[in-house]
Specification:
The chain is an alpha/beta fold and about 350 residues long. The chain has two domains: about 5-125 and about 305-320, 2-Layer Sandwich (Nucleotidyltransferase, domain 5), CATH 3.30.420; about 135-305, 2-Layer Sandwich (Nucleotidyltransferase, domain 5), CATH 3.30.420. The protein has helices at about 45-65, 85-100, 110-115, 165-175, 185-190, 215-230, 235-265, 280-295, 310-320, and strands at about 5-10, 15-20, 25-30, 75-80, 105-110, 120-125, 135-140, 145-150, 155-160, 270-275, 295-300. The chain has a six-stranded mixed beta sheet, with helices on both faces. β10 (about 270-275), α8 (about 280-295) and β11 form a beta-alpha-beta unit. α4 runs parallel beside α6, α5 (about 185-190) crosses α7 and α7 (about 235-265) packs parallel to α8. It starts with a strand and ends in an 18-residue tail after the last helix. The structure holds 5'-O-[(R)-(carboxyoxy)(hydroxy)phosphoryl]adenosine (KG4). 5'-O-[(R)-(carboxyoxy)(hydroxy)phosphoryl]adenosine binds next to α4 and α5.
């Protein structure tokens, strides 16, 4: 009998459901929440309310696109955390209720592990191109900036992580500060393509080991823009492409310096990226260039699997299911990785 897993993701501002059969993706539905754009960032209460509205239609749509009846499901995988508690509660409670109604196991998934497993989402008509274990994943999103060594589908070690802001936060906060809009990553990425990355430079952090820091560079940009605007109020408007290109290059340099160091220290040559910031065109290009120089095999996720999606949760859940896991019904979501 086939193993059919329904995945549910609701950790932040995307409500998503996906169905996989024996590891192959049948459907992946994502409802994004535009309501946050007006506020320049995700408003937790609005996110929870939107998940509550979206969860039933999104799950129904995922099942119908997959051509799967609820009674055919083997298990339901859901994101337990980390993320926004109110958002996570919606997906967790829904998974419990549906699991109980169908009398099938529910399987909690760590959101971080979902991103790590995005390279293992198999799609019909496409040959799977998957990294070999162990591999390194640069996990970069609005909530994470980590270098992770993945030894097996369910086994990983965080080698380095940010000690303050995530790199996605740096993109988002700086975009807001420059009056460019939200989410900042795609906006800065687009403007950066038109600018000169060598025009301006920003202070780089000096953090030991494989950890990151992004709060200093944010402050460096803030002071730079403030000082230049005091001299010329049109400075931002006249130079925004060059500022974005230079700022993006500085962030990519920081990310790549530690990734290169991690690859050197571990001797690992299969390198992947994941998380929302892995959609960044500059970062993707740099990874491929560095990989070619250093003999790495690099793996770039498809754009639709870079940001939050339930396909990655379903795949991670599938491996937990194969390992015989079954989460107890008194499970509660957790907002922080350390509480997982
Ligand atoms: O993984 P994700 O959807 O959500 C979590 O944070 O878990 O990532 C969202 C982040 C935002 O900070 C957004 O600005 C960033 O990913 N992002 C990008 C790009 N597309 C999305 N950052 C840089 N360049 C992009 N093209």
């Amino acid at each position: 009998m086939a193993d059919i897993i329904l995945g549910i993701e609701s950790s932040c501002d995307d409500t998503s459901a996906a169905v996989i059969k024996d590891g192959w993706l049948l459907s992946n539905v994502i409802a994004s929440q535009d309501v946050h754009k007006a506020y320049g960032g995700v408003v937790p209460e609005l996110a929870s309310r939107a998940h509550e509205l979206n969860i039933v239609p999104v799950v129904s749509e995922a099942l119908s696109r997959a051509g799967v009846e609820p009674g055919e499901l083997s298990a339901i995988a859901f994101t337990r955390g980390p993320g926004l508690l109110g958002s996570l509660l919606v997906g967790t409670s829904f998974a419990k209720a549906m699991g109980l109604a169908l009398d099938i196991p529910i399987i909690m998934v760590n959101h971080l592990q979902g991103h790590l497993m995005a390279d293992f989402i198999r799609q019909s008509g496409k040959d799977p191109v998957e990294p070999s274990f162990p591999y390194l994943c640069l996990l970069v999103s609005g909530g994470n900036s980590q270098i992770v060594r993945v030894d097996a589908p369910l086994s990983y070690t965080i080698l380095g992580q940010t000690i303050d802001d995530a790199v996605g936060e740096a993109f988002d906060k700086c975009s807001k500060m420059m009056g460019l809009g939200y989410p900042g990553g795609p906006i800065i990425d687009k403007l950066a393509k038109l600018g000169d990355p060598t025009r301006f430079s920003f202070a780089k952090p000096h953090i030991p080991g494989l950890d990151y820091s992004f709060s200093g560079i944010k402050t460096s940009l803030l002071y730079f823009v403030r000082d230049e605007m005091a001299k010329d109020p049109q400075f931002m408007e006249k130079n925004k492409e060059d500022i974005c290109a230079s700022f993006q290059k500085a962030l990519i340099d920081i990310l790549m310096d530690k990734l290169i160091k991690a690859a050197r220290q571990t001797g690992i040559k299969d390198i992947t990226i994941g998380g929302g910031v892995s959609a960044n065109s500059g970062l993707r290009q740099r990874l491929v260039e560095e990989g070619a120089k250093r003999g790495w095999r690099t793996f770039l996720p498809e754009f639709k699997f870079t940001t939050d999606n339930a396909a990655m949760i379903a795949v991670a859940g599938y491996y937990h299911y194969l390992a015989g896991e079954n989460t107890a019904l008194d499970v509660a979501p957790v907002s922080r990785l350390s509480d997982f």
